[in-house]
Amino acid sequence: MITDQLPLYLAITAGIALVGDGIDVATRTYLYRKNNKMFKEFREELSKFKHEKPEYGFVLPLYKNPGESDKCLEDLITRVKVPKTEIITVDDFSNDNNETRNIAKKYDLETLDITKEEKDVRKVRAQRKGVEKWLERGKKYVICLDSDCYINNSLSDLELAMAEMDFFKLDAMAGQVLPKIDKDSTLLERIQMTEYKQAMRIGRGSMYSLEKHNNNIPNDMDDMKGKYSLKQASQLCVSGAFGIFKPEMLKQALDEMKIYGGGEDTEITLRLLAKKAKIGYNNSLVIDTEAPNTMKKLFSQRDKWAQFISNYTYDSKYIENAFRKEDNKWKPNYDAGGIALRVQTLRDIYMHPVKLATMPALLSNPSMLATFFLTYSGISTLASYMIKDKEEKFDWAAEALLPLYDLAHLIGPKTVGYAKQIGRRLNFKQRKKNKQ
């Protein structure tokens, strides 16, 4: 009887759905390795030529973190060698007796202020104020950096990244944002490092590609333009921790922002893509960021992310990126961003109830659970090993636990976040109906 075999069928369904995620990872791994090899060659050749010094300005929103802000600014000024005149800090209404503001004063930096009336719009208002100031001064690029992050590169690396943006006429560029890890880091933080590397290298790196038309050694920039051309330049998220932008495009996106309560970096990116922006990714730009070091902090962070992910699929900018309107008909958008949006929505939103509903059957079937774990773990471990840099040490313990971490993430914060957002939408519809 079919009913007798139902638990087995459910377990198989759950396993297929979850292993499907692994297949997506494997496909993106192949694309990343191919793209990364070509970009390494391109950037090495681009660095040999003299480029016009880019006009750029940094924007750093500050909020109640004088200690971290002090470390970030000192690093940016003394090690990265960014001139003080190219940094604007924005005090996002810290309201802490000027402790945070005095950090910027310590380095003699220009500081803008967010008023009490403006404070309830996340850091979007702070970014906008800084971007507007650099626009007034005619800057070609704006670099947004969170005040608890560190750029592990030199100023010349940043200038080369902007030369790449000039070469391909990009509107924005993302960097590789990774958790800060040291000998005292917890296993939870190390697992997040493995997760972030996959998200950055496989996720972002697979969506930015070029074409090489010959194998000649270029003698000048004209030869470079004859050798390389852009194939795909699309990202689903330029991390809020770090990003290089054309200020005009960024200002337009910031002016359109809605208040979702989180995920503003993805929203900004989607709004840029809706304007046909070309967004690149530079794996050689590495930015250290803070990762949650307790389960409570991690749950809170991922709960908010899940709420935003489930919310943006209703937004018009999502529709405009996943699909394109041609001859008054909506058709799938087949560039990297459109495909990735539809895959992510199917995998993370629509398949979530299926995964959740079939999970008990999978967990109650030891042989199926072992099969899933070994398959998923094998694909994930191989992918992580294939994308690691030569000098990196491979974290076998973190990699082995990543499938269980992903499973807990699916059952816990993702489900809670999605449920909250569904409840919020149903409540909104009910209020709207009552007003009519």
Taking the alpha carbons of the first and last residues, their distance comes to 51 Å
Mean pLDDT: 84
Structural class: alpha/beta
- DSSP strand (E) fraction? 5-15%
Uncertain spans, ≥5 residues at pLDDT below 50? Answer: none
User: What is the helix fraction of residues, given as a range?
Assistant: 55-70%
Strand order of the largest sheet: 3-2-1-4-9-6-10-5
Provide the CATH superfamily of the domain at 51-293: Spore Coat Polysaccharide Biosynthesis Protein SpsA, Chain A
- Secondary-structure element series: HEHEHEHEEHEHEHEEHHEHHEEHHHH
* CATH architecture descriptor name of the domain at 51-293: Alpha-Beta Complex
CATH class identity of the domain at 51-293? Alpha Beta
Number of helices: 15
- Largest β sheet strand count, sense and barrel closure: 8 strands, mixed
Number of strands: 12
> Rg from C-alpha positions?
23 Å
Backbone shape: globular
| CATH fold category name of the domain at 51-293 | Spore Coat Polysaccharide Biosynthesis Protein SpsA, Chain A
